[in-house]
Fold this sequence. Notes:
By secondary structure, the protein is mainly alpha-helical. The chain is 83% helix and 0% strand. The longest helix has 51 residues. The chain starts with a helix and ends with a helix. The C terminus is likely disordered.
Amino acid sequence: MNHFLLLGVSMLATTIAHYLIPFFKTAVLLIVMMSITGAGIGVVDTGANVLILALWGDKGAPHMQALHFSFALGAFLAPLLAKLALGTTVSAENHTEPDLHPPALNQSPEASLDPLFAAPDDLNLLWAYVCCGTYTFVVSVFLFALFFKKTSKHGKSTASAQVSRRAKYHKALLCLLFMFFFFYVGAEVTYGSYVFSFATTHVGMEESEAAGLNSIFWGTFAACRGLAIFFATCLQPGTMIVLSNIGSLVSCLFLVLFDKNPLCLWIATSVYGASMASTFPSGISWLEQYTSINGISAAFILIGASLGLMAIPVGAGNLQGQYPDLPIVLYTCLGSTILTAALFPVMYKLATFSVCRQQKENIKSENWKALPSSSGLGG
């Protein structure tokens, strides 16, 4: 399927879901719209990575970093913009909500029936979703415009070029990168999700300080993803992964050793967010240097990342609730970081082994081809 058409349809479906979500009054319809939104974002997440590789191949490391910088920037700015749009209306409604329910219990069944579809009481909430939906609609229009341009020839040429770069251990590399992203994304989301609660309950920070700690993690994460665009022009993806792993290991180790120290928590959180920034796009660009990544391969890799996003934070949160005196969240991040740091040398060895073996076979075949001509000259 054409990349631009698939991405355009996905963004259009996300647009429709964003427009309809504020109007639904039942959980079932809301779940359906949220599922459509999740499916559309999942397609964009996979398809955008594949599109970058299809357009630039193994030369697209800066473009891959720019793509994931846009993810980080949106994740950092969208909650802030939503907070500005909503203001204090949400908290005010939550305080008045318990007073509205008891009288409803005494009403007749006909009077208690809620409409399935109605305008929300909070217009700020409506406008927040409308703004997001309009933004995604504009993006979908650009994608459809690119689709109607003649891009089929370029797509076929890049596809044929990618097939020739299929590594001998292609499936093994994909499985290892699947596990690599499982632990990496799991650690990233675990720390980003629980750093606020951990700082308030375990360290004893004020809520304002804990919120700042959460912001500094995602702020340094987004900022360093932006800087990684320029670093990717002069550094190899493998070098960036090694540097990121070292920074993540050191920062996690300091977090575990000095988990009660607020100053260390601030510094290590900043370093941890900065160190994790370039790992994901660098991992995809690194693999593209040794073997081609098509839609199926990218989807398989991102399934590993999605499973880590769901499984590791849930497990860490449950354990942290059972053992509140222990920094389970930090142990989880440290363990996941150690596993990612251990997996990359294995991946590198497997990828370079196949390349070196292929080069030796090419040299050997060239030597055999040269033997008849040299013997003919001697005769």
